[in-house]
Specification:
This protein is mostly helical and about 250 residues long. It is built from 13 helices and no strands.
Length: about 250
């Protein structure tokens, strides 16, 4: 029978001769973000939309604790959800980006590719939701695409959604340009009246008109009553439109 002392010596010799991996040499445990990324990828691979949607719901709670590398990887994983065939997963991915409160990461992670095509006759619900999400996230890179939708989108619902999204850019360094471009686009969309007093038809104005003054007021911090009041105010200050913003940029 082998004594305990001999057995211990044998084990120590085996460890020394074969170089067993020490605990400090082992791969570190995955971070919570890495574990969530693995969960997202597994759900995607399995086409398990319920699990995918549930995992996307965890993103906001982890975001602040992530370092930059993990944020970039997690944003990329969330972006895969925008390309899912299931609309529920797409919506969950958009909401996950909103929950991060990180506009630049969300934009680069996939939202910039999720907006409606200005030439499309009809936008999908997820595309419109992606536009709406930019109001809360307000990434600077989205300004030009949003203005293009306001000005040119065939789907007037996309134009209206973009108008509302741009109302959230009150702290943007581009806000004066945004204001001027919105005023011009809305002026162009506003129906004209013929000599007989008949208004021309303007589906774009029908969709954006009711949102015009509220959006411009939110952008600037003002409380103008309607778009006509805004036109007069803007024309009076068109050489110095920056004065129309109530709150100065810091």
């Amino acid at each position: 029978m082998i004594s305990a002392r001999v057995l211990l010596a044998s084990v120590l010799l085996l460890v020394a001769s074969h170089g067993f991996v020490r605990a400090e040499d082992m791969d570190p445990a995955p971070t919570p973000a890495q574990a969530l990324i693995a969960k997202l990828e597994a759900a995607k691979a399995a086409r398990d939309n319920a699990a995918w949607t549930a995992a996307l719901g965890e993103v906001g709670g982890l975001w602040e604790a992530c370092d930059e590398a993990n944020k970039k990887a997690l944003a990329s994983a969330v972006g895969h959800g925008l390309k899912a065939k299931d609309e529920g997963v797409q919506m969950a991915a958009i909401q996950a980006f909103v929950a991060t409160k990180d506009g630049e990461a969300a934009w680069k992670g996939g939202l910039k590719g999720a907006l409606p095509d200005a030439k499309a006759e009809v936008s999908t619900p997820a595309e419109l939701r992606a536009v709406e999400a930019l109001k809360a996230l307000h990434p600077e890179g989205a300004v030009s695409p949003l203005l293009a939708l306001v000005q040119k989108a065939k789907d007037v619902k996309a134009s209206a959604a973009a108008l509302t999204a741009l109302s959230g850019y009150e702290r943007s360094k581009q806000r004066v340009t945004i204001l001027s471009e919105l005023i011009q686009a809305l002026r162009n969309a506003k129906p004209s009246r013929s000599s007989s007093g008949v208004l021309s038809k303007s589906p774009r104005w029908d969709e954006m008109g009711p949102l015009a003054a509220p959006a411009l007021n939110e952008l600037t911090g003002r409380k103008e009553g309607d778009f006509d009041a805004w036109l007069q105010l803007y024309d009076e200050n068109k050489k110095k439109p920056a004065v129309l913003f109530v709150n100065p940029l810091e």
